[in-house]
Amino acid sequence: MPVTRSTNQILVQVDLEIESTLRRLRKEVHLNTMAVARQQTLKELAAPNVENQTLCINIDNNVNFELKSGFIHFLPTFNGLAGEDPHTHLKEFHMVCVGMKPNGVDEEQVKLKAFPFSLKGAAKA
Predict the structure, then answer these.
(1) Residues with Cβ < 8 Å from 67, sequence gap 6 or more?
(2) CA torsion angle for 119, 123, 124, 125 (degrees, to 10)?
(3) pLDDT tier at 16, thresholds 50, 70, 90
(4) pTM (global) more than 0.90
């Protein structure tokens, strides 16, 4: 027996106010999204995540290495004067330490041992 339109009818509930229902549903989704976003303040979102970071400096005393005088002469100097930029000093210090790191020594250990040699004048006091 062939299927005709009249024999294959599915009852569908018709929403006569479909536009208003759609607006209401979109508004509910928007409000739910805003409520989730408001759970954290802007200050909280901008704060660094320190949960997995150590909050102290760990010096490994078992690592023995010597800083060569040539390496120390390449280090940038920071005097602590008003016109000096400490961020620039740290960037330059990082670049020297990365480029001159001895084999088998952790970069952080090199930085910890070399940093006092980069300070002069008021910054060292």
Answers:
(1) 110, 113, 114, 117
(2) 170
(3) confident
(4) no
